[in-house]
Amino acid sequence: MAQQRTVVEQGNSGLGKQAGRVRFAKRTDRMKASEIREILKLMAQPDFISFAGGIPDPDLFPVEEVRIATERVLQQSFRTALQYAPTEGYGPLREWIAAYMNETFGLGLEGADVLITSGSQQGLDLIGKLLLDEGDVVLCESPTYLGAIQAFQPYNPRFIEIETDNDGMIPESLESTLAAYPEAKLLYAVPNYQNPTGRTWSLERRKRVMEIAARYAVTVVEDDPYGELRFEGDRLPPLQAFDQQGQVMYLGSFSKVLCPGYRVGWTAAPKVYLEKMVLAKQGVDLHTSSINQMIIYEMLQQQSLSAYVSRLIGTYKERRDAMAGVLREKLPELKFQLPQGGLFLWGELPEQWNCRTLLENGVQHKIAFVPGGSFYPNGGHEHTMRLNYSLSDEQRIREGVGRLAALIHSTQA
Amino acid sequence: MAQQRTVVEQGNSGLGKQAGRVRFAKRTDRMKASEIREILKLMAQPDFISFAGGIPDPDLFPVEEVRIATERVLQQSFRTALQYAPTEGYGPLREWIAAYMNETFGLGLEGADVLITSGSQQGLDLIGKLLLDEGDVVLCESPTYLGAIQAFQPYNPRFIEIETDNDGMIPESLESTLAAYPEAKLLYAVPNYQNPTGRTWSLERRKRVMEIAARYAVTVVEDDPYGELRFEGDRLPPLQAFDQQGQVMYLGSFSKVLCPGYRVGWTAAPKVYLEKMVLAKQGVDLHTSSINQMIIYEMLQQQSLSAYVSRLIGTYKERRDAMAGVLREKLPELKFQLPQGGLFLWGELPEQWNCRTLLENGVQHKIAFVPGGSFYPNGGHEHTMRLNYSLSDEQRIREGVGRLAALIHSTQA
Questions:
Q1: Residues 6+ apart with CB under 8 A from B337
Q2: Could you tell me which residue ranges the Aminotransferase class I/classII large domain spans (chains A, B) (predicted)?
Q3: Which residue in chain B is spatially nearest to A6 when comparing CA positions?
């Protein structure tokens, strides 16, 4: 390796030794390896059918556009693309995002209102770092996105779940919870094609939730990775469009509409938040990959985002319909609502079922899903499950639902 | 954008409003915009000469190798490269890193001992998250890397500086400090071509520091981004080679030897640390860009790391020599030691000088550097400065040092 051989005086070393007495920070007590993640690792074999992931179909990735965009970026600006870059993100991409949100949602953003993050997951971590002291109250939908729980948990908040129905968060439940916890720091919501339920909030609910949130001056974190993946129905304005007080932080992502491998997402938020978020990000990773931001920008110059998205939604809609059809046919005891977009279908078995136990038995049937209980920060609801339909073609969906039905029908509730 | 027009009921919105009453977490009190960063932004103009950054010369980036590697990755495995990926990192790259460290340092690592991070800066944040409770003691060199201070500070530790000289950390100072703070959580060190001082620890010092650290069972964080950039002298083994207890976490990076734009670094550490670090990273950004990891791996298949490095060190050594020569000639009142590698030269003016004030006046002379006081977590030492020589060619170095001399000679101490 080195030009002269290294002076090595001893072999290895303490690496094999498991220092049992490492004094971890208290916050790590709640960092536990998810047993589901461990089970799902076992299932990562080709003859398995997994409805567990929340991942796009890689056969739909725009690889030709990636190739062309990369070539252009390297040709025109490799010195910038491969170099360190400002923490805030690549200027033209920030401008593009502001313009896209303005055009789509009727907002009045500037590039300076946008921070590029390493996936929108990083936005969640930075927001936790910025806002959450130990014991602070985080309000969320019940159920809510598992990755948000994981991002916020190290900052030791208290999660309070707000009731939801098929139209989204229930305003009365939010109102009474905020009356009980008026000091709540943060309201986390996924209003479009929610992970895990696939539900979309109605226009009325969006307005009422923001009216209530405004009265209590709670910071609203609106997570919207799936909004573009709309199969039917109107596109509804984000919570940010009803924000009169500068209290909404909106998280967007290119992972579901272009591809996840670049890890490029963003936060659009009032400057009072964004300035601190930039400082936090600087200590966390200096900046998001410069070349990746420039490639994404270049891809968006080649064709519109809606052109990229239109390739996906036809296929995903067919798969949703296929899954819904086979479920009705083969597994009528699983209740579900048809999602209008996104990647997930949310199923409920009769209450005596435990879907974690079911998943363990799934190994024998070579079928995987995510037990719904994982999405409730305070536990319970073990009779629910999240099924992903974006990754498997119709034949595998048919086969997979067959295995799921066989699994359930051969198991005692 | 959307296939049907969005229902937009109102224009913007609260984004312009600066909610003055945002209740940030207590930890953000210490997140302040660096005044230096602000000054340096002003200086980012082409006729400025900046010795401030710590960045590689982009004209030396291996752009052809990047192009070939990208093409291969997209050709052979775009489905994996553009998809979500395991938090731990790309398996073949982890194996490569383990083999490289084993060959270079005589260690006995496996791929499983390595976590890929989004730059080694992310390793620092994750380590802070893992280990630091409020008030915990962090020991560091005096001075130390500014980015480590920024990464650890949000976890509210107490920084205690250990005295250093030209051979590195002074064991007697470490010993007496640990006797006073036996519960110290973490010892942070940059033993090779340190940022900011350019100093390299002697072999004897490495051994003695590890003997003392072993007695106190403090976690040692060894940050080694510059180790490969060696102009002369022996390559010395890392602290990790003297670790008998499994207490060293080693941070490496491809930013200085290939290019920073991919944001790919790593942590090699005992499993008891690494397992928790993976959990923390999962909540923070899910994983580091999959395509970037695969491109870096592919670049290392094309040629050895030492072949990439050998292009750099010839040029950087010439620039170091040029800067040292012109400094001796034009600015004899600036004391410095010649660094044996890396990117930085550390200068000390007589004690009555204040380099922050000097920098402010630098705007008129179109010259920038980093005031050394920034690298002392507990302040002081304002008569020092860090000068970078990697980014400017010899002519600009000569011109820049001339401006620096003119600045100093036209200013009252």
A1: B166, B198, B199, B346
A2: 54-403
A3: B235
